[in-house]
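Reposting from the mailing list since nobody answered there.

I have sequence plus structure tokens for a pair of proteins and want to know whether others read the tokens the same way I do. The first protein:
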Amino acid sequence: MTEAILPSSSLSRYYDAVCMYATAVNDTLAEGGNPYDGLAVISKIWNRTFYGMLSGKITINSVGDRFSDVIVLRFWTHREKLFRTKKNKSVNQSSTEISPQTYAVYESVSSTLTFKVATKFPWPYNKGEPPPDQPLCGFAKKKCSLSDSDDSNVVAGVSGFFGVVVMIG
């Protein structure tokens, strides 16, 4: 059975970049410009939206920064078992199909978040609830006392190890 091999995401971005550049060069030539004039070619890329083959919508602003849209996906795994007979022998074959489901899309140009599915997002941990907004000890570990921190546990463990080594040897 032949499986489709998808190109890497970085390869698709390079492909889309070359297509954007080629489009800008073609537009420069169509207006009678010089394709060796880098500023003329770049000016055809700025303030423009391209549609990449694999990257989707690519929007470049007036200073050459790319707006990146974010798509939140969940991949569902479907497993099927196929039972076939070959010359009166049963054969157990299984196949796996992975299908993506789009939950939300953030469009950076308009700063809008659109939910595509009305159901609750299935968080894999924390009993299906979203993770907390802050870590338990805070981002700078200021909410935890020194005795509860990982650093003091590591220091105690290393000290205990060397204490045992000194006593034995």
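The second protein, same order (residues first, tokens after):
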Amino acid sequence: MFPRGFHPIVKVLLPDVVSGPAPVISHTSVPVHYYYIDFGISTWFTGSDAPRLVVGTLGLDREPPELSDTVPYGLFKLDVFLIGNLIRRELHANFSNLTILEPLMSRMVESDPAKRPTAAEAYRDFKTLRRGVSDLSKYRILQPCDWPSRRCILAALRHIPLDSLNLDFVSFAVLDTRYYAAAGVVRLLDSTPPVTIV
């Protein structure tokens, strides 16, 4: 956090470069607010009573099931999907100790937009989840999925079609309250060499 800003190239200095180093405040010392805006599909609505339906498929995320060039869909429920998908792809898929987000994330990426929470409901549920996390856990370092945890291995295997796999064996051992892959071999049936997961 840089309360007086920083130079765009020499980030340790103030914007004018000559006034000295840019003061830094830890993000744990002040409240931090993140705003997620412009998901690649922006629409300007005139008037508050206009219908809030749009068409289009040109967004950066191609996964939302409702995207269509012909059938109108609700843009706000799409935004909920996009944030949920961001959580799923950038956080949940890359860090093994964010399982607390799974129920909310799953609701946010529901294929039926009517079953998704509104943005306000998702935010309320997130705040409720966060209140349930101990202070110590809030400052725990995220564990990257490149640690060979059981959950990360299974998440990686989920993206490979099951009929193309021949699982020779996968054994797991519990060590230090975390699951580590003791050994595992996955062989693709098209006679490629085995991929070892260690």
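Reply #1 (J.P.):
I read it the same way you do. The longest helix spans residues 75-92.
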